[in-house]
Amino acid sequence: MSNSSTGTGTSSKQRAASSQPSETSSKRKRGVFQKELQHMMYGFGDDPNPLPESVALMEDIVVEYVTELVHKAQDIGSQRGKLSVEDFLYLIRKDLPKLNRCTELLSMNEELKQARKVFESEEFD
Amino acid sequence: MDPPAPPAGAAEPSQSQPLKPSPPLPPPSSSSNPPISDPNPNPNPSPSPSPNPGPIQAPNTNPKPPTPPQPRPPSSFNRTLPPSQPPSQPHFPHFPSAPPSSSASAAAAAPRGGMAIGVPAHHQSPSPPFSSSFGQHFAGLSRTGVNVAESTSSPSTSQVRTPVQGMGMLGSQMRPSGIPAHQQRPVQSSLRPPSSAPSNQPAGSQSFQGHGLMRPSSVGSPASPSPSASQSVQSINQPWLSSGPQGKPPLPSTAYRQQLNPQSMQQRSHIPPPQQSTPTSLQQQQQQQQSFLSNQSQEHFGQQVPPSRALHVPHQQQITRLQGPGNQKPSSLVAVQSSAVQPGIQSRVTNVDSDEACNSILSKRSIHELVNQVDPLEKLGPEVADILVDIAENFLESITRSGCSLAKHRKSTTLEAKDILLHLEKNWNMSLPGFGGDEIKSYRRQITSDIHKERLAAIKKSMAATEAAPAKGSAGQASGSARGSQAKTPLNIIGSPNLKNS
């Protein structure tokens, strides 16, 4: 889990460079998703005020999942250069509900952008 | 053979009652008992009371009862054990075959062993070494407080017999034939108990049932006699007892585990106060696992408790998740995250009833409960449950060993959650959320050599340059020539028709 020696010069440089910021934030913040998770847990059937330990556990699971996903996406995206949305969609291709939800959200996002663009351009008119 | 102390017997007279049926078995050995148990002032001749008070007393006298307890147990066990010894021998080849003469001492030790689960440690002079270690194991399993092992630091093969027998008594699941060399054997060997259920147990199991009852009672009151704990222990033990005569004893391997515990028990000097957690088999099993793990870690590091907490957490977590929330308080998970809190662990360990501890880490009951969670209509055959228990135990042992190696590599004498987590993550691809602490998972960028980067750049250049070039045929030729020219062509480049200009 911790940085293990990569051996190459670049990797060591990277490690040194990242060590400073990581040291300051060596402990990731707890409760980043606390409020949202509480509401979501309630929506899925839990108590309106779930136990803090349950929320902390859920947050651990969520953060771990997102971290894992981003690492994998980085592995894939680095071959093409930069990270892109396509990498993430590729990683969840097997999970149909998630994939469909993602594509839906992305398309809605595009539509909203278009609408705002038109709205702003109309304003100026 | 005399019961260690009258107060112990008086403290829990009810518990001694169930033992009564078992005592009648070994009347002849009683003669050998007296010489063994000189230190014990208690003149109680009947075998039944002796084992009973022994285990009971152990918890009462928590802080390592000195000599008195020793003589008591051996005598009682002698009576019950001898018949079972011969058949059990083949099961434990690794154990030094203790001569039957030692059975007397072993008997003394055996009760201790059985009691070890709950009994602090009535070491008997003749057989203490074996029994003590045996008891230690039990103590470790059921509760840290048991000081049974203390006096038995010197393992003697002869005594080994008795503890084994004692173990059988405990849950009526242990093989009477004993585990003579449990002390000598390393922890590993203990984990490879013969999976085949001992057929000879049924004969002695019934007799042991009574002893098994005693065990829980003794275990339940490590430091201070806790009637609630004993009651819970009894209730918990009863399912064992009821199931004992029906089928084969749950885990023959438990005997091995118990042996391990006595050794670790020696290290523990105090018995943590019993917890008030709900006495469920699940809890007991978890605690057993914890105590067992802690024992193992102790053996590794020669230290006391601390690891037990860390160990406690992961297994507890797993068990909790597997079996549903159960009794474990969620706060316990959070508390667990802070590494190594000894008192908490010990209290939990003490909660574990001895009867659970004697069955090693996992019991058949927990396996069936797990299966129930998966599918209420599913049934498991006895061999399947045995194998699953073996698999689980081996898994736990390997995990603990690796975790201890990592902790040692960390130059620490405490086994912490992060050791186990690292091993599981790297070797078993298991990530356990909730224990990871506050560390940020760093990302290791892929190591790309310079040559690889050059090639990629060249490919991109050629692709951009030949975008306009429509010739697919030339692209095919180019790809062939490209591959030939370059030592390694990055095949991950997609859309390679325009690899290179022909």
UniProtKB/TrEMBL annotation, chain A:
**Record's superkingdom?**
Eukaryota
Q: Name one Pfam family in it.
A: TFIID-18kDa
**Locations of Low complexity compositional bias?**
1-12
Q: Which GO terms describe its cellular component?
A: nucleus
Query: Family assignment?
Result: Belongs to the TAF13 family.
Q: Which CDD domains match?
A: HFD_TAF13
The record's listing under Gene3D superfamilies reads: Histone, subunit A (1.10.20.10)
**Protein name in the entry:** Transcription initiation factor TFIID subunit 13
Q: Where is the composition biased (Polar residues)?
A: 13-24
**UniProt entry tagged with the keyword Thylakoid:** no
Q: Which SUPFAM superfamilies match?
A: Histone-fold
Question: Region (Disordered) spans which residues?
Answer: 1-32
Subcellular localization(s) per the UniProt record? Nucleus
Q: Which UniProt keywords apply?
A: Nucleus, Transcription, Transcription regulation
UniProtKB/TrEMBL annotation, chain B:
In which domain of life is the source organism classified?
A: Eukaryota
Low complexity composition-biased segments: 8-19, 91-111, 216-235, 277-298, 331-340, 468-488
Keyword terms of this UniProt record: Nucleus, Transcription, Transcription regulation
Cellular-component GO terms for this entry: nucleus
Which stretches make up the Transcription initiation factor TFIID subunit domain? 363-430
Compositionally biased residues, Polar residues = 149-162, 185-209, 236-245, 255-269, 315-330
> Which spans does this entry mark as compositional bias, Pro residues?
20-29, 36-74
> Where mainly found?
nucleus
Q: What Gene3D superfamilies does the record point to?
A: Histone, subunit A
Q: In which compartments does the protein localize?
A: Nucleus
Ranges where the record places region Disordered: 1-340, 462-502
Q: Name one Pfam family in it.
A: TFIID_20kDa
What is the similarity comment for this entry? Belongs to the TAF12 family.
Provide the protein name: Transcription initiation factor TFIID subunit 12 domain-containing protein
